[in-house]
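Worked example

This section walks through a single chain of length 237. The input is the sequence exactly as stored; nothing has been trimmed or padded.
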Amino acid sequence: MNLPNKITLIRIILMPIFIALFLVSFPGSKFVALGIFVLAAVSDCLDGYIARKYNLVTDLGKFLDPIADKLLATTGLVMLITGANPIIPMPYGIVVMFIMILRDYEVTGLRQVGQLKGRIIAADKVAKIKANFLYSTLVYGLLISALRDIEVVNNSEFMKYFTLVFYVFVGITTCLIALSGIVYLANNFSVFKDDKKDAKPQTPVETTEATIVESDKNVTKTKATKTASKTKEKILK
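Given that input, the structure is written out below as tokens.
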């Protein structure tokens, strides 16, 4: 297992630790959880950079990296929409989650169809911008969650405006997720086209004619063989 794959695997392993630290209650636990999430998000950029720069791209990496990315994003969002006092209030949190999962399923389906037809569907610029906004929004939300444990900060005017700005980020990120899904579908809809649709189907008449021609060829070949055999017999006599 090369270095990029090890980094990706570590990112996956960090998620249960992040969840545990976020859910337990001791002074500063959510700040520690936030630090782990930031570390995991940075590793997402790091493993891809190392793999491309040093030509260490492997099939294992192609398998693990999407899993780690989706696990990171989904876990962070779940932490923000659950609990007695969620950072993203209901029902908006469920809407964001639904749009994100729908987009991921769509892209996964497109890539599977493309793979069957020998076509690689890579991430575009909109997807990369979406990913940056999503990670930034999740880190922002987790920071708010950590600050809420500090009573003085939680009751301040600063916290109200800080939270309002976060809601703006959530709105922008949600729109980018939806836009990314639309762009993926528009740019790669051609993978659903039937490659054989332009092939001209044979009519019953054409099929019959082809069969007759083939039969004539076989008869001619048989006659030629018999003639050659008779000629050979005469020579031998």
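What to look for: The longest helix spans residues 204-236.
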